[in-house]
Amino acid sequence: MYRFAKAAANLGGQAVRQVRHGSTAPQDFHSKYGLGVLVSGTVFCSAVWGYVLTQTGIVWNLSPVNRMSPKPWRVAEE
Q1: What is the pLDDT of residues 19-72, one digit of tens each?
Q2: Neighbour-count burial for 22-59, b at 16+ CB within 10 Å, e otherwise
Q3: CB–CB of 58/52 below 8 Å?
Q4: What 8-state DSSP symbol labels residue 67?
Q5: pLDDT tens-digit readout, 9-28
């Protein structure tokens, strides 16, 4: 377990040094397109839910208040 922790700390340190000093490697997909994918996904999801909530006519029944009434109490027959 000690070797694993030491290796993990070493990898973390290397990554921090690489980010701090700038990497010469080409940018990967996430650093190139990550924000665009996140924003477009958010817009798409919001648009779909906006359509579902406003145009489909689904009755959601979020609260049963004033929609349900208790049954009248039955008096036990003796």
Answers
A1: 555 556 677 888 899 999 999 999 999 999 999 989 988 877 677 676 667 778
A2: eeeeeeeeeeeeeeeeeeeeeeeeeeeeeeeeeeeeee
A3: yes
A4: T
A5: 666 666 555 555 555 667 78
